[in-house]
Amino acid sequence: MRFDVTACGKRIQELRKSHGLTQEQLAEKLRVTCKYIQRIEAGRAMGSIELLIDISLFFNVSTDYLLLGKEHQQKVVKRHLQETILLLQSLEQVL
């Protein structure tokens, strides 16, 4: 698997939007400029290792997710459990 700076930027953008933050708000929380966040999200810049760690801690995701799109194993297991619960609930309603 290869690193794709554009895909990494998109993941950061999706996280930001899913948390209801503007680029300005995220930049303020991370103590960087809005322009820098814009460039990272557009795939025209790559944040430092320190910034990527700060982003991963802020959004509670792994650096593997930010860099490579790999979901944290715990999140995968949680999603499967939620799907199983929904399936069991629908089966219970049928019975």
The CA-CA distance between the termini, in Å, is 45 Å
Query: What's the helical proportion of residues?
Result: over 70%
Assign the structural class, choosing from mainly alpha, mainly beta, alpha/beta, alpha+beta, or little secondary structure: mainly alpha
CATH class: Mainly Alpha
The average pLDDT score comes to 92
Rounded radius of gyration (Å): 17 Å
Order of helices and strands: HHHHHH
* Count of distinct structural domains: 1
Can you walk through the features of this model?
- With 95 residues, this protein is mainly α.
- It is built from six helices and no strands.
- It has a single domain, classed as Orthogonal Bundle (434 Repressor (Amino-terminal Domain)), CATH 1.10.260.
- Helix 2 (23-30) packs across helix 3 (34-41).
- The chain starts with a helix and ends with a helix.
What's a concise summary of this model?
The chain has 95 residues and is mainly alpha-helical.
Strand-helix topology:
Elements: H1 5-18, H2 23-30, H3 34-41, H4 49-59, H5 63-68, H6 73-94
Helix pairs in contact: 2-3
